[in-house]
UniProtKB/TrEMBL annotation:
<keyword id="KW-0131">Cell cycle</keyword>
<comment type="similarity">
    <text>Belongs to the IAP family.</text>
</comment>
<keyword id="KW-0498">Mitosis</keyword>
<dbReference type="InterPro" id="IPR051190">
    <property type="entry name" value="Baculoviral_IAP"/>
</dbReference>
<dbReference type="GO" id="GO:0005634">
    <property type="term" value="C:nucleus"/>
</dbReference>
<protein>
    <submittedName>
        <fullName>Baculoviral IAP repeat-containing protein 5b isoform X2</fullName>
    </submittedName>
</protein>
<keyword id="KW-0832">Ubl conjugation</keyword>
<keyword id="KW-0132">Cell division</keyword>
<keyword id="KW-0137">Centromere</keyword>
<dbReference type="Pfam" id="PF00653">
    <property type="entry name" value="BIR"/>
</dbReference>
<keyword id="KW-0539">Nucleus</keyword>
<keyword id="KW-0159">Chromosome partition</keyword>
<keyword id="KW-0479">Metal-binding</keyword>
<dbReference type="GO" id="GO:0005819">
    <property type="term" value="C:spindle"/>
</dbReference>
<dbReference type="GO" id="GO:0046872">
    <property type="term" value="F:metal ion binding"/>
</dbReference>
<keyword id="KW-0597">Phosphoprotein</keyword>
<keyword id="KW-0963">Cytoplasm</keyword>
Amino acid sequence: MNYSDVIAARFLTFDQMYSYEKRLQTFADWPFREDCQCTPEQMAKAGFVHCPSENEPDVACCFYCLKELEGWEPEDIPWFEHAKRSPDCGFLQMKSPDELTAVDFFRLEHGRMVNYLRKMAHMKIAYFRDQVDVTSRNLRLLFEILPHGGSVMQGSSLDPCNVMRGALNPSSICSAFPQILTKSCRRLTELNK
């Protein structure tokens, strides 16, 4: 399961986590118990849900703002750590859950959804930027491999049409990236017939 799937699953299940008791239940295997500030009770009061993994047994995530914190130390105060890293979290600013009206609850749920959508959008933007970087590197590599550094000289001037024809020459591309562009090579070959 990729990270965006994990976030989506958390968002869908965390609607139950307005309840302190439900949050507290998630800390059954929490590594910090006694003689410390970050007990399960304090973690749950600060809005956290325990989300351990094999490599990170102390990951806690706010059910509301989806802020993940790990690397907890016994002297860490959950409410303070949460407020320091996510000062605009709606959970930290809400009144007592016992005093919530239906309107308050729907406003909070709206804010929770906005947090989720913002987090997913940031992840998609980061993924897109990574793909742009990979594509740019591949194109630079391709143009370095092509004759004349990707340019085709006509007389003493550069002919842009020939540059593109040279860049889109299936034999050049396919020989440069045979394992990556197999389908694209077939398609380019068909287009050039």
